Amino acid sequence: MKENCAFVIMIKDKWWREFCHRHHEGKKVHSYVQGGWAPPKNTSVIFFYVTKPTAQIGGYAEFVERKVGDVESLWNEHGNESALQTKEKYAEFMANKQRVSFIRFKNLKEAANPIPLNNVLMLLGVKRLARKGFYISKETADKLIALME
């Protein structure tokens, strides 16, 4: 298996809660929307680090793909998978942006035991997390999953 098999993405609490809500409604595929060329490009698993004040890894999902393209065309294709809910909210969120990334994922799993920031930092051996997210190895991903279950 390749070294960078998983990606930790930063997500605001309100978007995390919305994805969890969509998951409980039975939605299968979700899209996290970011302006420009957002990572990850290629991975197997996405871990969701819910930013402060929550400051914990709240769950993970199976990565489907990252689609980058025109703001209008990607909304028409995958807008129904987004936590933004309406085209108006999407337009406000994407104001003045030419390109957008839809990070598509499925099989969302909420952590039975979310991992607090201090534990994540100790496990990774770092002082702070990269704001744009970061790749992790299969071994580290397996450890995170085991801690969450």
Keywords:
single chain, 149 residues, alpha+beta, Archaeosine Trna-guanine Transglycosylase, Chain: A, domain 4, six-stranded mixed sheet
What does this structure look like?
Strand 3 and strand 4 (56-70) form a beta hairpin. With 149 residues, the protein is of the alpha+beta class. It contains five helices and six strands, in the order E-H-E-E-E-H-H-E-H-E-H. The two termini are 23 Å apart. It has one domain (6-148): Hypothetical protein (Archaeosine Trna-guanine Transglycosylase, Chain: A, domain 4).
Question: How much of the sequence is in beta strands?
Answer: 35-45%
Q: CATH superfamily name?
A: Hypothetical protein
Q: What CATH first level would be assigned?
A: Mainly Beta
Number of helices: 5
What is the N-to-C order of secondary-structure elements (H for helix, E for strand)?
EHEEEHHEHEH
CATH architecture: Roll
Secondary-structure class: alpha+beta
What overall form do the CA principal axes indicate? globular
CATH fold description: Archaeosine Trna-guanine Transglycosylase, Chain: A, domain 4
Tell me about the largest β-sheet: 6 strands, mixed
Tally of individual domains: 1
| Number of DSSP strand runs | 6
Distance between the termini: 23 Å
Strand order of the largest sheet: 2-5-4-3-1-6
Radius of gyration: 15 Å
Whole-number average pLDDT? 93
**Unreliable sequence segments:** none
